[in-house]
Amino acid sequence: MGDLDKARDHFHSSREVFRANGVRRGEGMALLSLGEHARLIGDFDAAVSMGSDAVQVFIEIDDAWSEAWGALPLAKSITELSRGREAAELLVRASRTFDGFKDRRSLAMSSDLLGDVHHQLGETATAADHWLYAAEIYESLGEDTLGEESRTKARRFE
């Protein structure tokens, strides 16, 4: 609804409810939301801190899929701090996890983000390869709009 302050307050409240009731995965997801909020307002240090805390929760509860899911927004925030290599490592691990779970949509998302990271690193050929891979997956899932977005990014470097 566009009210970022109210959203942040709700994320904090939900985190406290999850924490008080011992629902660690919910606590981790609330931390991811707080991290995304911080990224949206340009506080990338806070975004990385909260995203890292969320991923740590998922590691502690042995939830590999959620750990990979948490790596996506964390990698975006890390990239904003010009730490592309670190972001790429997170995304490669996330991609392997999504592939292992046969989660093709999340695999496409992580591949698209890998393209963005490699583009920032000046590795345009590698970026294009990741974007094209993401496009192929999206299109195989019938998500043609997302596929075209990834293809458009790749075309800039043909």
TrEMBL record:
InterPro entries: TPR-like_helical_dom_sf. The lineage of its organism: Bacteria, Bacillati, Actinomycetota, Actinomycetes, Streptosporangiales. SUPFAM superfamilies: TPR-like. It comes from Nocardiopsis lambiniae. It comes from the Bacteria. This is Tetratricopeptide repeat protein.
